[in-house]
């Protein structure tokens, strides 16, 4: 079973601190909690995956094992309890549930959901950068009510049941339980007249075209973040982000190794023997390269700074040219006589035996390989 990318699941870098991991988990757990997504199997599956990721990354020992190559598969089959191995998983989960059922985070302020899209680029577009346009439907703040869901943005009163906190406390035996206020639904406010434009949601669905530049040097598997271009927040919360997963189409001439631009060139027999000058294709103007006499198959030439930009450091890789020598398979009579004479002079074949054992092709190939 392939190892799961737990850092990707939580949306944090591999060097994230424990607090950053905990914060990301709490945010995602609230977003995908089954009670907030009733009947949504995809959200339920994501909620389980988020818990699984935090179960490993929230425990220093398990995280160290995971980072050292143990992978997510190593933790398959572990007991599924919430409090074990030194991680206060149950405490963190309780905080999430408390926050979820309490609903009292600044009157229902929530960050908008993120949007994920895939973008396909040609080899040149990925290497040199490209301005792209993405069409998407997203939630945006309702203008008539300014996002508060009331008619003209004014028909709002503080909830008398929870006094604006969004939650109420009830006693069950020896325990005090904090629950979402049933009167205001955790919003801490009551709308007396609902906005007709958004039906009280505070957001409306809008089709948008987002135009942004993809940085030079991206590769397949990279994710580009466009801040603030996700769904609008709820109750005045900040918007989510737009994430673009990059897929790069292969090229007929170029390949990429790290930040190096790799080109394979074939030399004829005479070019390899006597040398020549070739125009090597690059992502810009062709590069004139002198080929030395006697160049062998497999020779590699490197030109510094003619490769691909690194999207993080902006440094340039190299142009790497790999030479191969084409051995002719069909010869004219004159060509054959010349090569047989060469083989004879070089001691590669006895006089009078055309190419010796194995034929001319094998002898010529052996000379140049």
What name is given to the CATH topology of the largest domain?
Answer: HSP40/DNAj peptide-binding domain
For the record, give the distance between the C-alpha atoms at the N and C termini, rounded to a whole number.
43 Å
The pLDDT mean sits at 82
Spans of 5+ residues with little confidence (pLDDT < 50)?
Answer: 74-91, 97-107, 354-361
**Helix and strand element order:** HHHHHEHEEEEEEEEEEHEEEEHH
Record the strand order, biggest sheet.
10-11-15-14
Count of separate DSSP helical elements: 9
**How many runs of DSSP E, i.e. beta strands?**
15
Largest β-sheet summary: 4 strands, mixed
Strand residue percentage: 25-35%
Binned, the helix content reads 25-40%
Describe the structure.
The protein has 3 domains: 1-102, DnaJ domain (Helix Hairpins, Orthogonal Bundle); 107-145 and 201-250, Sandwich (HSP40/DNAj peptide-binding domain), CATH 2.60.260.20; 254-368, HSP40/DNAj peptide-binding domain, CATH 2.60.260.20. It is of the alpha+beta class. 26% of the residues lie in helices and 25% in strands. Strands 10-11-15-14 form a 4-stranded mixed β-sheet. A 3-stranded mixed β-sheet has the order 1-9-8. A two-stranded antiparallel sheet has the order 2-7. The longest helix is centred in the first third of the chain and has 17 residues, at 41-57. Helix 2 (18-32) packs antiparallel against helix 3 (41-57) and helix 2 (18-32) crosses helix 5 (89-102). The radius of gyration is 33 Å and the shape is elongated. Mean pLDDT is 82; it is low at 74-91, 97-107 and 354-361. The protein contains 9 helices and 15 strands.
